[in-house]
Specification:
The complex is a heterodimer of chains A (224) and B (347).
Chain A lengths: L5 H28 L4 H16 L2 H12 L4 H7 L11 H23 L3 H9 L4 H12 L1 H17 L2 H7 L9 H10 L3 H34 L1
Helix pairs in contact in A: 1-5, 1-8, 1-10, 2-5, 3-9, 5-8, 5-9, 6-7, 8-11, 10-11
Chain B lengths: L1 E10 L2 E10 L2 E5 L6 H9 L6 E6 L2 E5 L4 E2 L7 E4 L11 H7 L7 H14 L15 H13 L5 E5 L7 H18 L2 E6 L2 H7 L2 E6 L2 E7 H6 L4 H6 L4 E4 L1 E4 L2 E4 L4 E4 L8 E6 L4 E2 L7 E10 L3 E8 L9 E6 L10 E4 L4 E5 L1
Parallel strand pairs in B: 3-9, 3-10, 7-8, 8-9
Antiparallel strand pairs in B: 1-2, 1-4, 4-5, 5-6, 10-11, 12-16, 13-14, 14-15, 16-22, 17-21, 18-19, 18-21, 19-20
Helix pairs in contact in B: 2-4
Classes of the chains: A mainly alpha (224), B alpha+beta (347).
């Protein structure tokens, strides 16, 4: 029998796609939240951060309530052939919701410590706001944004609670590394579970190591 | 060449309410920190929006609340030198300067103008450095290069020397002064340092709590600040309440003296100011008995504190400041001051 690598592929694509989504969404909200009036900012901040402190199963519950097959939104979306419950791409939604606050909060912290006079001087020199954002603000906040992205990716890769609620575990269809570990352990396949644990460890280690190396190289480049 | 500003903006505990016209050369806004000077610059540059009013530069309307005009900073052509220079840390000197040339599309022209600017500001050889690898003076020159190359019609300087070490400051002041004369456009500078304002500017506007107390040519301002706050900001150490007796005579009850003045005293006089440098042991005018109380030495000057005979006990001592070579061997029993040096201060 050929070994089933599906959980690895599925986990990686879910983590990668949700990470990209969360990257842009997190930056977008972090940037605009900073400009909102205080009270609205406070409320929005709570809503956007909630998924980080709620148990993932609670997030999964809310996702099911909204996107479940027999719920209004779920029924509406199914007319277009989109179904988040029990599909592999439902995993993207689950992972993105849980990973979003990590990106949002780290990006917001980075934007808040950004020296505004850099943006102002860019404007008075005639640079467009888009140029200032991508070429001055983003590079200056690079460290925080990179940290947020890595955290979001790692979180998305390890997502279990919301994922298992929304998409369950179907081998070859919705299985991810984390749901596979649980399923194998539950069915007394300790060896199989251990194998997938090691895979997960390896990916996480590689991601963190490469980030550290990248940072070290950048520090060196700044010094020389 | 003229800048006309007439704006109001609520700023926490007070209202910024300035109305002035600056023309021909360097004008300074002089005032204590937090008096609204920097906010004024930000409003002119378009970084902050005034609540009401208008800003006009060489006949071009930059802001007009009534006509609902508020040009974005990008369209104002107003250069802004920030206190910390605001160089883009991720870019080299070359890239920073090229940012000032973003309106120019022709690459060859860009390159040529950048070269000229590098040469003019003695930055050749530093093109590929990052801002963090430059000294404070070099950073300031790069920031200026980046602004000047963008050909602004007005240049705003926010405390341009405050980030520099003392010994660098003086030589850079001279350099910057020459450069700005060469620039030949309107310059508006903000500073809390009266020496800096005196060195650099043709006109000075004295600001206090969001208002302009006086806008005069530099020398005229120091000779006649006009109000108590302006006298304090221009560095007058001895100020006391006074009232008019005759056209050229005032009474200072706190010091129990009467002072002859050269200027005619108008109604509404509230105080007189005596600059610490102007007392003289030989002057026969306004000569009164004094009693020495304390002395403090500086590297090249001495500050002597004294009291007038009959000065009220709760009134602070009077300061006399003189260079050490002029210091008398014995403290004189009487001191005079020329009527021309009596500052008349009004409400």
């Amino acid at each position: 029998m050929r070994f089933d690598w599906y959980p690895l592929i599925n986990s990686l694509r879910i983590a990668a796609i949700s990470c990209v989504l969360v990257f842009f969404a997190g930056i977008f909200f972090a940037y605009y939240a900073a400009k909102l009036p205080r009270t609205i900012k406070g409320i929005l901040d709570v809503i956007l951060t909630l998924p980080m402190v709620l148990p993932p199963t609670v997030c999964g519950y809310f996702l099911l309530v909204i996107f479940g097959a027999r719920r209004p939104v779920g029924m509406f979306l199914s007319q277009f052939g989109i179904k988040f419950a029990m599909t592999w791409y439902g995993g993207i939604l689950a992972a993105a919701v849980v990973a979003f606050p990590l990106m949002y909060r780290t990006a917001r912290g980075a934007f808040e410590s950004f020296d505004k006079t850099l943006a102002y001087s860019g404007q008075t020199l005639g640079l467009s706001n888009t140029y200032i954002f991508w070429r001055i603000r983003m590079p200056a906040c690079r460290q925080g944004i990179m940290a947020g992205t890595v955290l979001a990716f790692a979180r998305a890769l390890g997502e279990y609670g919301a994922t298992s609620m929304l998409i369950g575990y179907t081998p070859g269809k919705t299985a991810t590394i984390s749901t596979t570990v649980y399923q194998l352990w539950r069915t007394n396949d300790e060896k199989g579970a251990f194998f997938w644990v090691m895979i997960n460890l390896a990916i996480s280690t590689v991601v963190l190591l490469s980030v550290n190396m990248l940072e070290a190289r950048q520090k060196k480049a700044v010094k020389s | 060449m003229s800048l006309h500003v007439d704006i109001t903006k609520q700023l926490g505990s007070f209202t910024l309410d300035v109305d002035f016209t600056a023309e021909n050369g360097i004008t300074s806004l002089l005032g204590a920190s937090g008096c609204g000077k920097s906010m004024t610059l930000k409003c002119i540059a378009g970084i902050e929006r005034p609540d009401e009013g208008m800003i006009e530069l060489d006949g071009r309307v930059l802001f007009d609340s009534e006509k609902d005009i508020n040009l974005p900073p990008q369209q104002r052509r107003v250069g802004y030198l920030f206190q910390n220079y605001a160089l883009f840390p991720n870019m080299t000197v070359r890239q920073n300067i090229l940012c000032g040339l973003n309106r120019e599309k022709d690459r060859a022209v860009k390159e040529r103008r950048m070269r000229e600017m590098l040469q003019m500001l003695q930055l050749e050889g530093l093109e590929n450095r990052k801002p963090a690898q430059l000294s404070g003076g070099q950073q300031q020159r790069v920031a200026l290069a980046r602004i000047l190359v963008s050909d602004p019609q007005l240049l705003l300087l926010d405390e341009p020397f405050s980030a520099l070490d003392g010994h660098l400051r003086d030589s850079l002041k001279v350099e910057m002064h020459d450069l700005l004369e060469h620039f030949g456009r309107e310059v508006l500078m903000v500073t809390h340092d009266r020496n800096e304002a005196y060195n650099m500017s043709r006109d000075i506007a004295v600001m206090d709590r969001g208002r302009i107390l006086a806008l005069k040519p530099t020398k005229a301002l120091f000779a006649d600040p006009g109000s108590v706050q302006a006298a304090v900001i221009t560095g007058c150490k001895n100020i006391a309440k006074a009232r008019k007796l005759e056209e050229f005579l005032v009474e200072v009850p706190e010091w129990s003296i009467r002072l002859e003045t050269k200027q005619s005293v108008k109604e509404g006089l509230c105080a007189v100011g005596l600059r610490a440098h102007y007392f003289s042991p030989t002057s026969q005018h306004n000569r009164f008995p004094v009693r020495f109380t304390e002395e403090m030495e500086e590297p090249f000057e001495t500050i002597i504190q004294f009291r007038y005979e009959g000065q009220s006990p709760d009134s602070p001592p009077v300061w006399w400041r003189l260079t050490k070579d002029r210091k008398p061997a014995q403290f004189p029993e009487e001191l005079g001051i020329s009527p021309a040096n009596i500052l008349l201060l009004y409400e």
